[in-house]
Amino acid sequence: MRHDTFHDDTSHDDALVLYDEPFTSRFLLGTALYSSPAVMQASVEAAGCDMITLGLRRQNPGGGDGDAFWQILRESGCRLLPNTAGCRSAREAITLAEMSRELFDTPWIKLEVIGDDYNLQPDPFGLLEAARELIAQGFKVLPYCTDDLVLCQRLHEAGCQALMPWGAPIGTGRGLMNRYALRTLRERIAAPLIIDAGLGAPSQAAEAMEMGFDGVLLNTAVARARRPARMASAFARAIEAGRAAYLAGPMEQRQTASPSTPTLGQPFWHATT
Q1: Has 140 been annotated as catalytic?
Q2: How is residue 57 annotated by DSSP?
Q3: What is the pTM of this model?
Q4: Within 10 Å of residue 17's Cβ, how many Cβ atoms?
């Protein structure tokens, strides 16, 4: 069941398109860290998302203890986006992506190649190497990357039709730490850009959407909330509101005040006694 949302007149024509496939929702949600499969299910439903991610290295589809988890994924109606979380080399990520295609019968992959254990920053060299190989194999690659312009340009040139730059390091909740770099990406990269990682509050997701980003992917901010399903719903609404504001065209900022009710040339009414 999808959450109740508001829609403007353009909502039906404003689908997120990834690799020529339209998605109604611009909210992608992760399935890790939840206290139980039931909590995860409620959060996915409240988010109203069309795509959910899962980490192959953190799950065991053959294990009986995970039956409830896999049943929920099958029944969610969402497209699965396996990820290569935990991989630290291009070869490791490529191998895991190939396994995921066999296991889930999908060419979609969220590509992660981690280069630093402290802040889980992507390895740009391994990421680009893996992306080129997987694109050549026919995968629909969504690379998790930093906000580096040159890296994003190279990934796009390699055939990635959408990119997932971080807002901040994974799990920090610090929001959009480098707004200049993110705005530069939005201005220079002619492809869908989805903010992935680092968001902690719905207001941060709304800001990203107001800047013109095409979607938001997150996990920790929902899974670790006191009430995950309610937080998922809050993020979904914020993403919609931010997108609507972007399409509406926010006013330009000014250095000086400007009255909202001009008085020049208007008649004044004076009370008489």
Answers
A1: no
A2: G
A3: 0.87
A4: 12
